[in-house]
């Protein structure tokens, strides 16, 4: 299901433009193990159903088939989920940092599509700040904290070590670059293949790896001990038949690490003798173990997230009453100014200093009178309260 709902990099802008028909502001996160749609919709609209409708329509999947596989968050719960996500608490690999880059990309894409206004921009920027805070204040990001590093740990366990081994990396995106970073210093023979020779050359030049024409990946498969595949291809890059040919006449295991969504490796390849295949889902048990060993850090991180959610919710609530507060201040200031001018006109002998003192006094009185009503409006985003303020102070219809 996740594969059916994934958004490719090429399709993302078009999808965000399409999201305009469903939400005033919004964003899309599509990674190797999650697809998320965020949207800003009016309170009187069924937001979750609307966004499910977008997802179903975009991928031509009936909404009733999607619903059992979805999680839905609204209001404060949506902010909490996003903050936990940025902190690495909702990632398959606890504390992994790649989600920060993915969130930055989601924000940039939403801005490019004109879908990140004040509210969504503030939400995502605050989420990124929470992610940084949690990683700074806790030890949640210690040790190996990415799907790539966990996958390579598996290869080390199976092969003893990677020194002297031949590793083939397929793809040239962020995950492929992360793999090259982890492999640097392993003393392995690393080769990278990508459909764009220019991108492959630029990446391998930075990490001292070799390049292989993408058309020759079957030969690379036959020569490799480990294949880490993370392309954005819509179909299988490595098939079971290719695995059969690669194992012909060779000794030892062939480790296939499929980190792509949609999958790069045909699942039937796992049935080929000598082939060991791990995909994103099969890494879950290992990641769960990592999570269990960091329970104390998780508790600390959850507390930090809760505090930041409260701060964000206060800001969010204030935005709903800002027009009312602005109108209330404007009404009070208009009355103050009119009365001040009327009073000063009757006292022409006052010095400029005395006039300024009276003006300051009137402003102070107004500010003190408004302080508690404004504070109450900020603390309680209540439609009836807002309506009462408009009626009491004759602020007009705009709320």
Task: Note the gap between the termini.
Answer: 43 Å
Trace the largest sheet across and list its strands.
Answer: 5-4-3-6-7-8
Question: Can you summarize the main beta sheet?
Answer: 6 strands, parallel
Q: Please state the average pLDDT score.
A: 89
CATH class of the largest domain: Alpha Beta
Radius of gyration: 29 Å
Give, in order, the helices and strands.
HHEEHHHHHHEHEHEHEHEEHHHH
The poorly predicted ranges are: none
Give a quick precis of the structure.
Substrate binds at residues 31-34, 91, 96-98, 102. Pfam families: GlutR_dimer, GlutR_N, Shikimate_DH. With 399 residues, the chain is of the alpha/beta class.
Keywords:
399 residues; alpha/beta; Beta Polymerase, domain 2; 6-stranded parallel sheet; 16 helices; elongated; Shikm_DH/Glu-tRNA_Rdtase; GluRdtase_N_sf; oxidoreductase; chlorophyll biosynthesis; porphyrin biosynthesis
Topology:
Layout lengths: L1 H4 L3 H11 L5 E7 L2 E7 L6 H13 L3 H4 L9 H11 L11 H15 L5 H20 L9 H13 L6 E5 L3 H10 L5 E6 L2 H11 L2 E4 L3 H7 L2 E4 L10 H8 L6 E5 L16 E5 L4 H9 L2 H51 L6 H28 L3 H11 L6
Parallel strand pairs: 3-4, 3-6, 4-5, 6-7, 7-8
Antiparallel strand pairs: 1-2
Helix pairs in contact: 5-7, 5-14, 6-7, 7-14, 11-12, 14-15, 14-16
Protein name: Glutamyl-tRNA reductase
Pfam families: GlutR_dimer, GlutR_N, Shikimate_DH
Family: Belongs to the glutamyl-tRNA reductase family.
Explain the overall architecture.
It holds the Pfam family GlutR_dimer. InterPro entries: 4pyrrol_synth_GluRdtase, 4pyrrol_synth_GluRdtase_dimer, 4pyrrol_synth_GluRdtase_N, GluRdtase_CS, GluRdtase_dimer_dom_sf, GluRdtase_N_sf, NAD(P)-bd_dom_sf, Shikm_DH/Glu-tRNA_Rdtase. Belongs to the glutamyl-tRNA reductase family. The record marks 81 as: Important for activity. Residues 154-286 form the Quinate/shikimate 5-dehydrogenase/glutamyl-tRNA reductase domain. The protein has 399 residues and is of the alpha/beta class. It has 3 domains: 2-137, 2-Layer Sandwich (Beta Polymerase, domain 2); 147-290, NAD(P)-binding Rossmann-like Domain (Rossmann fold, 3-Layer(aba) Sandwich), CATH 3.40.50.720; 306-393, no CATH class. Helix content is 57%, strand content 11%. It is built from 16 helices and 8 strands. Strands 5-4-3-6-7-8 form a 6-stranded parallel β-sheet, with helices on both faces. Strands 1-2 form a two-stranded antiparallel ribbon. Helix 11 (217-223) crosses helix 12. The chain is elongated, with a radius of gyration of 29 Å. The model has no long low-confidence stretch (mean pLDDT 89).
């Amino acid at each position: 299901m996740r594969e059916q709902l994934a958004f490719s990099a090429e399709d993302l802008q078009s999808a965000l433009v399409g999201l305009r028909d469903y939400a005033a502001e919004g964003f899309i996160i599509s990674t190797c193990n999650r697809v998320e749609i965020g949207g800003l919709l009016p309170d009187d609209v069924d937001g979750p159903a609307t966004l499910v409708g977008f997802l179903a329509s975009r991928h031509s999947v009936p909404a009733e088939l999607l619903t059992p596989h979805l999680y839905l968050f609204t209001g404060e719960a949506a902010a909490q989920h996003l903050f936990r996500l940025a902190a690495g608490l909702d990632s398959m690999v606890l504390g992994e940092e790649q989600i920060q880059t993915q969130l930055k990309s989601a924000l940039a894409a939403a801005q490019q599509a004109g879908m990140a206004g004040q509210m969504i921009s503030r939400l995502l920027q605050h989420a990124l700040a929470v992610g940084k805070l949690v990683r700074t204040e806790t030890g949640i990001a210690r040790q190996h904290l990415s799907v790539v590093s966990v996958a390579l740990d598996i290869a080390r366990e199976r092969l003893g070590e990677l020194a002297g081994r031949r590793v083939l990396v397929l793809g040239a995106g962020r995950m492929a670059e992360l793999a090259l970073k982890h492999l640097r210093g392993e003393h392995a023979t690393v080769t990278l293949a990508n459909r764009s020779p220019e991108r492959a050359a630029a990446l391998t030049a930075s990490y001292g790896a070799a390049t292989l024409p993408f058309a020759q990946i079957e030969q690379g498969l036959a020569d490799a001990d480990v294949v880490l595949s993370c392309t954005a291809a819509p179909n299988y890059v490595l098939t079971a038949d290719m695995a059969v040919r690669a194992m012909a006449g060779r000794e030892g295991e062939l480790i296939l690490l499929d980190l792509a969504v949609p999958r790069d490796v045909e699942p039937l390849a796992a049935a080929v003798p000598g082939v060991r295949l791990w995909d994103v889902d099969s890494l879950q048990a290992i990641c769960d173990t990592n999570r269990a060993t960091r329970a104390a850090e998780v508790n600390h991180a959850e507390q930090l997230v809760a505090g930041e959610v409260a701060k964000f919710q206060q800001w969010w609530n204030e935005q709903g009453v800002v027009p009312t507060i602005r109108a209330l201040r404007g009404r009070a200031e208009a009355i103050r100014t009119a009365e001040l001018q009327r009073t000063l006109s009757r006292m022409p002998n006052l010095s400029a200093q005395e006039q300024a003192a009276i003006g300051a006094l009137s402003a102070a009185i107004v500010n003190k009178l408004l302080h508690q009503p404004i504070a109450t409006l900020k603390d309680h985003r209540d439609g009836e309260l807002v309506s009462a303020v408009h009626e009491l102070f004759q602020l007009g219809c705009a709320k």
